[in-house]
Amino acid sequence: AEKMLKKAKNLAYQVEHHLAILEINQEERYIARITRSKDYETEISALIDENTKILSFINEEMEILSTHDQIFNLVLQKYHLKGEKSKAILDEKFSNLSGEDKLIQSPRAQLRFFKSKGHYHSLLRNFEKLSLYCQKIIDWWEKYPKVKNEEFGRFLGDFSNLITAYFMEERYEELPELLDQLTISDQHNFHVKSTLFYFTSLHNLLYCMNTCRFEEAKALVPDIEKGFKIYLINEAEKLNLSANISSLFFVSEAY
Fold it and tell me: What is the pTM of this model?
């Protein structure tokens, strides 16, 4: 049982799952109490210290999650600033987002903080700062590859936000290099390969169409059609790609 708990805790640390670590910590303390080895006091002291640290992480995560959800609600409501007065109200309500980045202990809390800052600058229509925090979010995922692999869908959602931020800044020439970071490899399972196929196909298509590179966009179509037969994507995704391909042929007068 101790070996299984140790393995489970190691995995929980790798993916920054602090609630799971807290539960395992409780079980380890129970085992330590009933076995009472000669190092009992040292073991219990270390587990109590770990418990305190993990609790501080969780409190920090939940506090920032509340901030994130509050400002995300404004984004969903398409909140528009009307002059300096409304900006001052926003700054007052989210004073922890208006200044420099604060020191955060928990990696999960740090990710939510970056997302909150991104939403804050989105409301201010400061697209340069929005891009900066979208990039910080992607850098966070790269720093924690185990978490990225476990939550690949969330990573792609954040990557999509970074692409959107580039479009808002009209940084079109930088998009191909950005999209090249997402390549299908043998290390990916079939589900991830399918997700990457859809994601990269759609965004490469949109990039070419939005920059009037219609011939480049047409060159993508055979590989997309081939991918339909190889990868597992749902009907909505197929329709989305097909609709964009149809639009491509229409706007390029390839009737």
Answer: 0.81
- In 3D, which of 230, 79, 166, 241 has the Cα closest to residue 94? 79
Angle at 74 between CA 72 and CA 77, to 5 degrees: 115
Q: Are 182 and 200 in contact (CB under 8 A)?
A: yes
* pLDDT tens readout for residues 13-72: 999 999 999 999 999 999 988 888 888 899 999 999 999 999 999 999 999 999 999 999
The Cα-based distances of 219 to 71, 118, 172, 199 in angstroms read 41, 35, 19, 17
| pLDDT 10s digits, 88-101 | 878 888 888 887 88
